Amino acid sequence: MFEVLMEVLFGRVMALVYHPRQLPAANAAVKGKVYVVTGSTSGIGLETAKRLLLSGGRVIMACRNTKKAEALLQEWAQEHPGIVGDVLYLDLGSMASVREFAEQLKQRTDHIDCLIHNAGLFDMVSEYQTTDDDFEIHFQINYIAPLLLTSLLLDTLAKAPAPRIVNVSSLAHKFVQPALDDWQSERDHSPLKAYGRSKLYQVMMTKELQNRLAKQPQYAHIKVFAVHPGTVVTDVARSLPPVVVWAYKNLASLVMMDSHTGSDTTVHVATDPALDKRFGGDYFANCVTAEPHAAVRDQQLRRDLWTKTEDTLGRPIIPTKQTGTAANGHHDEAQQQQQQQQQQQQQQQ
């Protein structure tokens, strides 16, 4: 466990070397926009939700601990009357919960300006562990469940004038290699490898999703970004023994920032109007674009990840209004056949 802790601290220190710190854009346009923030009751997610609320945004806190979220909203409302927030239950460890959340969210709002996938997991001590959906736990919570949520909410996002999706990732994605034949790290498992790969797939999918959305007129205005929040003191070590937790937090404070500062990049990417002019698919660290893992530039590997993910989900990631099938994915052939059949029927009529 000590070795794992040292590797985590080393990774945090290296983040300072890789990504020199910049400040977020000032005076970003937030007022009146609808933000959905997952994992918003602690750490970076809490600070992100609070900052957006205090800037005039309507924030929907998506979390497991709804009582804590409601208490936070009440506390903030007392200090800052007039803020507009809401709470909905979401457990990324359950795909059924993701689907139910998406349906409930659509009843609360007719559009989403920004979906922030902040919630994540890094279990530093457990052996290979699966969810009730039979996915490796990091793989589900960090990658495939958030992606399912994105897929389910694309139409709601598309109703906003300049919608964004922000995937909160990690520098750890650079310290692993993709392995689609063992993408849940079952054969050679370690917490660091499982976590890193889940974040790598997240950054790869950020790029691939953006490329495919851009080819669909109804979704082309949606921007997708991935962010590394920086060297932040979080509750990542909470699963370790108390002595190690104490050492982590005290050593970490020497080289890491607090959660408020750590939320800078997320808030910057979620709100800076200048990013509307970008194509999207970028990876940010410390409020500036940064170079991701080389695998993110591998077009064929991204396509393979897309296909494997769609097969695993059993549904297209991007629906089309006409057919409900995948856009520019491996379902294209079936879509074309269906369109040809419809044309033939129209000609016969």
UniProtKB/TrEMBL annotation:
Pfam families: adh_short. Residues 308-349 are annotated as: Disordered. SUPFAM superfamilies: NAD(P)-binding Rossmann-fold domains (SSF51735). Gene3D superfamilies: NAD(P)-binding Rossmann-like Domain (3.40.50.720). The keyword DNA-binding does not apply. Keywords: Oxidoreductase. This is Retinol dehydrogenase 11. One of its GO terms (molecular function) is oxidoreductase activity. It comes from Salpingoeca rosetta (strain ATCC 50818 / BSB-021).
